Amino acid sequence: MLPKYKRILLKLSGESLMGEKNFGLDSNVIAQYAQEIKQITDMGVQVALVIGGGNIYRGMNEADTGIERAQGDYMGMLATVINGMALQSGLEKAGVTTRLQSAIKMEQIAEPYIRRRAMRHLEKGRVVIFGAGTGNPYFTTDTAGSLRAIEIKADVILKGTRVDGIYTADPEKDPTATKYEKISFNECISQNLKVMDMTAFTLCMENELPIVVFDMNKPGNLMSVVIGEKTGTLVS
Ligand code: UDP
């Protein structure tokens, strides 16, 4: 089987790593994701990863936390590094070679983010995990994912979520909602469909980077998207 995409950027939310828990990391989820990722690297697909931090800390709620937004955002970025280290361990356990690169320097645990070096790792078949988001407050890891995907010339950004694609309405609230198999960037805007935050979405649209939204928790789905089956929703 030939993969549809040669180089992908997989964006996972921090919350997906919680599994059934209310906070932190679920080792079963990490082991499962590692297996799913291994299957596609075994096919020769080059994989870059961006992980959120919402399972540990989100900086946006200054009113709740009493912590200034920018400070909280840096805390959120550090949370993504913790998640990146956890996934790195899971992947290495599964026999996948990895490198963690951080947008905020922390040399004892991660390489600094260097675009050309990241691309070299990918060419050598190593999974590259991008930690610390964009390195800037007021952004999200979706934006980090879009930015890095464009920088490393990924063919697509795969956004793993809890729902299996983009629906006409919120399927958790409206039972009549139907799923799009594919949709254009402009249609998403005109129908006010939230695929990613605006900054992330605009980056993809302006740079013609397709997005696939899919359910990462269903075993085999990642492979299915990568070989071009009709899984999830393709935005292009
Ligand atoms: N964050 C940031 N800049 C970035 C990426 C992330 O400031 O480039 C902070 C922000 O506070 C965010 C937190 O890190 O709330 C965790 O990331 P995100 O909310 O995107 O994680 P997810 O929702 O995917 O778990």
From TrEMBL:
<feature type="binding site">
    <location>
        <position position="170"/>
    </location>
    <ligand>
        <name>ATP</name>
    </ligand>
</feature>
<dbReference type="InterPro" id="IPR001048">
    <property type="entry name" value="Asp/Glu/Uridylate_kinase"/>
</dbReference>
<keyword id="KW-0963">Cytoplasm</keyword>
<comment type="function">
    <text>Catalyzes the reversible phosphorylation of UMP to UDP.</text>
</comment>
<feature type="binding site">
    <location>
        <position position="54"/>
    </location>
    <ligand>
        <name>ATP</name>
    </ligand>
</feature>
<feature type="binding site">
    <location>
        <position position="73"/>
    </location>
    <ligand>
        <name>UMP</name>
    </ligand>
</feature>
<comment type="similarity">
    <text>Belongs to the UMP kinase family.</text>
</comment>
<feature type="binding site">
    <location>
        <begin position="134"/>
        <end position="141"/>
    </location>
    <ligand>
        <name>UMP</name>
    </ligand>
</feature>
<dbReference type="Pfam" id="PF00696">
    <property type="entry name" value="AA_kinase"/>
</dbReference>
<keyword id="KW-0665">Pyrimidine biosynthesis</keyword>
<feature type="binding site">
    <location>
        <position position="53"/>
    </location>
    <ligand>
        <name>UMP</name>
    </ligand>
</feature>
<feature type="binding site">
    <location>
        <position position="161"/>
    </location>
    <ligand>
        <name>ATP</name>
    </ligand>
</feature>
<comment type="pathway">
    <text>Pyrimidine metabolism; CTP biosynthesis via de novo pathway; UDP from UMP (UMPK route): step 1/1.</text>
</comment>
<feature type="domain" description="Aspartate/glutamate/uridylate kinase">
    <location>
        <begin position="6"/>
        <end position="215"/>
    </location>
</feature>
<feature type="binding site">
    <location>
        <position position="167"/>
    </location>
    <ligand>
        <name>ATP</name>
    </ligand>
</feature>
<keyword id="KW-0808">Transferase</keyword>
<dbReference type="GO" id="GO:0033862">
    <property type="term" value="F:UMP kinase activity"/>
</dbReference>
<keyword id="KW-0547">Nucleotide-binding</keyword>
<keyword id="KW-0067">ATP-binding</keyword>
<dbReference type="InterPro" id="IPR036393">
    <property type="entry name" value="AceGlu_kinase-like_sf"/>
</dbReference>
<feature type="binding site">
    <location>
        <begin position="11"/>
        <end position="14"/>
    </location>
    <ligand>
        <name>ATP</name>
    </ligand>
</feature>
<dbReference type="InterPro" id="IPR015963">
    <property type="entry name" value="Uridylate_kinase_bac"/>
</dbReference>
<protein>
    <recommendedName>
        <fullName>Uridylate kinase</fullName>
        <ecNumber>2.7.4.22</ecNumber>
    </recommendedName>
</protein>
<dbReference type="InterPro" id="IPR011817">
    <property type="entry name" value="Uridylate_kinase"/>
</dbReference>
<comment type="subunit">
    <text>Homohexamer.</text>
</comment>
<feature type="binding site">
    <location>
        <position position="58"/>
    </location>
    <ligand>
        <name>ATP</name>
    </ligand>
</feature>
<keyword id="KW-0418">Kinase</keyword>
